Structure formats: C-alpha cells, structure tokens
Amino acid sequence: MLHLRAICPPGITERAVALLREHAGATHLVLFRGAAVEPAGDVIEADVAREAADEILAALCGLGVDRDGGLTLEQVDTSLSDAADRAEEAAPGEAADAVVWEELVGRTGEESRLNTTFLAFLTIACLLAAVGVITDSPVTIVGAMVVGPEFGPLAAVAVGLVRRRFDLVRRALLALGAGFPLAILVTAGGTWLGNYTGLFDASVISGDHDVDFVYEVGPWSLVVALLAGAAGMLSMTSAKSAALVGVFISVTTVPAAGYIGVAAILGEWDKVARSAGQLAVNLAGIVLAAALVLLLRRNRSAPDIRERPLSRG
C-alpha cells in the first residue's frame, strides 16, 4: 500500500474526495478541512493500492490538484486492515508488477543529481577499485562496486528516454559525464603519489592477476550488463530495493574506471583502452536493458509526466 496526501483548494475538494471514495483501490479516506497553510486548502489522506496509484494520480492531476495544491506518496510498510486488504484485491494486477511513474521519475531524478555527495561516493569507489587492482584483491573490488552510485543516473537515463523526459536525461548525463572523469583523475593522482613514494610500481598490474576481469571486455561483459540493468530496473519499479545490491556487484563500471586511472599512470595503455571499453560496454548495456524493461512494463494509462519539472530539493 501507498499513503497518499493531497492538499486541495476548497473548490475541488469535494470532487477529489468523491473520486477517492468511488475508487476501489483507495481506502482509509480522511479529510481535514482548512488544515493546509501553504498552499492554503484542505488536506485529504488515503491509502491506495500500489497497482491503482497511477490511475488515482492521473485523476487527481486531471482535477488540477498538482497545480494548485500538492500530492505526496509514501510507502506503507505495514497495514493491518480488512479495508486495505479489500482495496488491494479490488485493484487490477499485482502490487509487485505495478509501476508508479511519478514515484520512479522522482526517485531517479533525485539520484541522478550532480552534487558533492554523488561525486564523493563515485571518487571513493574508484579509489577503492584502484586499491583492489594494486593489491590484487577481488574483495576490495566488490566493495568498490557496492559503494559506486552510478546506477541511479543510468536508471534516470533509461526512464528519461522511455518517458521522453529529456531534462532527466540531461541531468543524468551531466552527473555521469562530470563524475567519472573527476573520479578517474583523482584516482590517477592517488596512483601517481603512491608510485612516486615507492609504495608500488608497474609490476603490480603486469602478469596474471585475480582482478584482470576488470579490463577483460568481451561478449560476456555485455551479457552481464544487460542482465544487471534489467534486474536493477525491475528492482526499482517493484520497490524491491534489496535486489539492487546484487546489481551493484555484477557490473564493472566503477572497477573499470578505477583501473583506467591506475593503468594510465603506470604506462599500461593497452589496459587503459580495454578498461575504457569495459566501462563503455557496461554503461550502454545497463541503460539499454533498463529502458527495455520499462518499455515492456509501460502502462499507457499512466499520468503524463513529461512536462512536470524536476524537483530542485
């Protein structure tokens, strides 16, 4: 279940209440007249079945609630109610299969923003990958995969392409286009410092190592990226976030970026090129698979979200 709160101008409150009262997928309807201060109006609260959320949001937006008031959705972790059970049974489909497009756009829009936190996580992840490469430690490489925040912008690109939200695509590409070069540059600086002080030399990446999979690009790199992108988008659209951890440790985006910084300083230009190829294949594969999943799950009755500006919060 999702908890819906709507701030309604008094002139449309009755229609909004009637809409929610009549919809089989809504329950626990509450009305607080005059409770909203800014924007002024009435506050309506209800619990809605996830599979009915898009239809209800579309209807409320059709009344102008989003323009003159406001709509918020929150996940309900536990609901002990026969009325809630009946609402979920009456709503068509299964909750796990429902895509709430407004929620998805908002989530990916937030996770694709270029900010200090995103840059810090990506840089730390690449530095961890560099340590894993230098010490030949697959465990450290896996840690770098988990820390990396790059799936958010990649998911945002897929959502933006499918929903024609090119403002979302631009935001995500800016984050990726600025984040990866900066992280690689910082990693290269750290590698230069370690090499200059004698902590290691070029021999650490010569010969065979357990972490050579990072730059060994091939058909399986694309297969893994496609599967990971599909699993990641399924996880985001079904609110099963636990599966995202498996996605993070399946793809070699961050390790490949970290390897680029290490190999460039140590003069292994062939490995630089191969790592760059690995990075490109993984990025493209994830976006392609995520977009295909969204196309397959697209609900044509979803509210039109193409013109709604992204939050700056």
From TrEMBL:
Q: What organism does this protein naturally occur in?
A: Actinokineospora auranticolor
- Ranges in coiled-coil conformation: none
Classification via Pfam families = DUF389
Superkingdom per UniProt:
Bacteria
Keywords, A to Z, come to: Membrane, Transmembrane, Transmembrane helix
Residue intervals passing through the bilayer = 117-135, 141-161, 173-193, 213-235, 242-267, 279-296
InterPro entries recorded: DUF389
Please report the name of this protein according to its UniProt entry.
Putative hydrophobic protein (TIGR00271 family)
